[in-house]
Write a structure and sequence with these properties.
With 375 residues, the chain is α+β, with helices and mostly antiparallel strands. The chain is built from 11 helices and 18 strands.
């Protein structure tokens, strides 16, 4: 469960916001504390708007949210929740081809979707540190039998790409597959699509990164010279999707770019003065709540605010990012295979709320793109 938040919730429509005791003035939070509140999807920032408009905002932003009831879809055949104060969140970036995402994702408008990016975020007890484990989408896995949120059952399959779990049965099957691989229960689920990601970056005013090498990838429409750049939404999307312009051209190299970009994004959000600009704050919250799909436990603005309150103390310097231990498939260099012994070291560390040991990733495939992008 998320740590209890000290942030005020948005009042339900029809109720008056609570005020402090007469004659008392709450101490103004420091600049650093204000900035940290803007992390975790920025939806938490809407609380500063408060007052008479809170009822309208509650309805407006709540209406933006889309959630899926993963608990109901998966039932009781899941790993046991480890009640040690930690949390595990599966974060997916989906490359749906429907609607406005067709142009961004390529291909036809057939409504299909895959998990373009997958990260397990482990938040340690005390919610001051986190480990992030990226799952290569090209990993060949044994997908378990699963039931999607519409009640349709999908049979198990062996030796299929990891990202096919999402395209087969959506969020529920993606969660089921991750839990099968790790033996760890996912407490929450967050998904962002192409369009939402691009709009969030634009609303933030871009993200500054430094490239140590030039990156040119016609397939992701990215052309960056070596140096410092403030990436807009389209460029940022191109960066986190490129695989042919860096390293060995594999998905592993792209993951290293994604990890570097996430850290740069966290640092950028901390320094954006949105909390002194209510309109910008609202625009960010509006975009964020439209951009994400969550599990049903996070399916309201207040729930997201509570969730964000439990993450606000985590800075990029307190976030360790690794890639799930894999090796290239000898039969197909475009696919990777799970290094089960080393991966178990990762899963054991997360289960026991311990740091991931360096030995877990030593000697595994990397994609050779480390250090190409920095914050």
């Amino acid at each position: 469960m998320a740590a209890e938040s000290t942030q005020p919730a948005i009042p339900e429509p029809g109720t008056a916001p609570r005020r402090g005791g007469k004659g008392r003035r709450r101490k103004a939070p420091s600049t650093g504390r204000k900035a940290l509140r803007a992390t975790a999807w920025t939806a938490a920032g809407v609380v500063v708007l408060g007052g008479a408009g809170a009822g309208f905002l509650y309805f407006k932003l709540n209406g933006n949210l889309h959630s899926v009831d993963i608990n109901q879809a998966l039932g009781t055949d899941r790993p046991t929740k480890i009640d040690n104060g930690s949390e595990n969140i599966l974060v997916l970036g989906s490359d749906t081809r429907s609607g406005k995402n067709k142009k961004l994702g390529g291909g036809t408008d057939d409504g299909s979707a895959r998990s373009d990016t997958a990260m397990i975020v482990h938040v340690y007890k005390g919610h001051q540190r986190a480990s992030v484990v990226s799952i290569p989408r090209d990993t060949l896995v044994d997908r378990p039998q699963c039931t999607d949120t519409k009640g349709t059952a999908h049979p198990a399959a062996s030796g299929v790409m990891f990202n096919e779990a999402y395209s087969t049965g959506g969020a529920a099957c993606a969660v089921k597959t991750v839990e099968s691989i790790t033996g760890i229960r996912m407490d929450h689920y967050l998904e962002v699509d192409f369009e939402g990601f691009q709009r969030l970056i634009d609303d933030l005013g871009g993200v500054e990164v430094t490239t140590t090498k030039s990156i040119k990838d016609p397939q992701s429409h990215l052309d960056l010279k070596a140096g410092t750049h403030t990436l807009d939404g389209e460029q940022a999307l191109g960066l986190v999707r490129t695989r042919h312009g860096v390293g060995d051209g594999s998905d592993l190299g792209r993951i290293q770019l994604q990890q570097a970009f996430v850290k740069a994004l966290i640092d950028q959000v901390k320094h954006v003065g949105v909390l002194s600009n209510p309109k910008k704050l609202y625009d960010l919250a509006d975009t964020a709540t439209k951009a994400v799909t969550t599990d049903s436990d996070l399916g309201s603005v207040n729930s997201l605010i509570d969730f964000a309150g439990g993450l606000k103390g985590i800075s990029s310097s307190h976030m360790k990012m690794v890639t799930m231990p894999v090796q290239y498939d000898p039969a197909n260099p475009n696919r990777v295979l799970l290094e089960k012994t080393k991966a178990q070291l990762v899963w054991n560390a997360l289960k026991n709320d311990r740091p991931i040991p360096k030995s877990a990733t030593k000697g595994t495939a990397t994609g050779e793109a480390k250090g190409v992008v920095t914050g």
